[in-house]
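Try this one yourself first.
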């Protein structure tokens, strides 16, 4: 499978809520596993309050299915008081992978 597309999503938690955000993202893994077209899915921690997700895809159809799927819907339902701001989500082209 040639991975050519990705979606990074960066999320910022309210002060003191970073561990709750990390737990929320860990639980989202189950949703990503169920997606056939998602080639890889990572949840990561940047700092005490910053975390993110990075997904990769081989086709536009797979990326579109993900964008319209359960993981982004779950991000839209992050509990009130947990996020410090809206997630920074964008579509990217993967230039190289291993």
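Now uncover the answer:
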């Amino acid at each position: 499978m040639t991975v050519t597309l990705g979606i990074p999503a960066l999320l910022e938690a309210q002060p003191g809520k970073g561990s709750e955000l990390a737990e929320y993202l860990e639980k989202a893994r189950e949703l990503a596993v169920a997606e056939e077209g998602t080639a890889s899915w990572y949840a990561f921690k940047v700092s005490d309050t910053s975390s993110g997700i990075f997904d990769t895809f081989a086709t536009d159809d797979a990326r579109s299915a993900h964008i319209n799927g359960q993981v982004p819907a779950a991000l839209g339902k992050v509990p009130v008081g947990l996020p410090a701001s809206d997630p920074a989500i964008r579509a990217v082209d993967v230039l190289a992978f291993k």
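Discussion: Strands lie at 5-12, 38-45, 50-57, 88-89, 92-93. Residues 5-93 form a domain with the Alpha-Beta Plaits fold (CATH 3.30.70.100).
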